[in-house]
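Backbone geometry:

***
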Amino acid sequence: MKLLLIEDEVKTLLSLKQGLEEEQWAVDIAYDGAMGFQLATRNDYALIISDIILPGINGLDLCRKLRAADVTTPILLLTALGTTDDKIDGLDAGADDYLAKPFELRELLARVRALTRRSAAQPTYTGSTLTLADLTLNPDTKLVTRAGQEITLTAKEFQLLDYLLRNQGRVVSKAELGEKIWDVTFDTGTNVIEVYVNFLRKKIDRDFEPKLLHTQIGMGYVLKLMA
């Protein structure tokens, strides 16, 4: 999944970008509110992280403009202004969370995980068809096809494919799948997830080329076109 990071202080921007990328996030960057607004309205992001004090459009006005433009992406505001009134102003402007500087990177990452978990639980792709190569999934009609051929999935297989398509290109761990698809934490000795991944792989990959569902040993699974 991809994040948008908006920060005018270059050292802070690069430090946060590196920390997020080390956690396997793809990160787009903007140095001011105007650039951030353009990127946020033209691209789909799992989360927008923005400083409040920005040249041009400040973070609060950016939140208001994005919400007025019907951008529903979660927004996390970063700022040195940490009073209760400042936090209320940020939330009232349309932000979903607020983190006062200075902060530790691990706290930022925890906020990112929490906000993207909430976002993933919402039907953000309703009315749209998810695609990768010739694989398609329609969340509304529950129709799945590969190379134009309809594929029949069980409810759990459909949920699994839906989640992997929404996160295509990103390695998804077994722990994350357990939490998101089964809403439980599996014991390390349980192979339920491997079994369902194999069921799904047989249906979407066995009779087709190129292969799309890949195992990253010791890390998890990723749905993508291999180079």
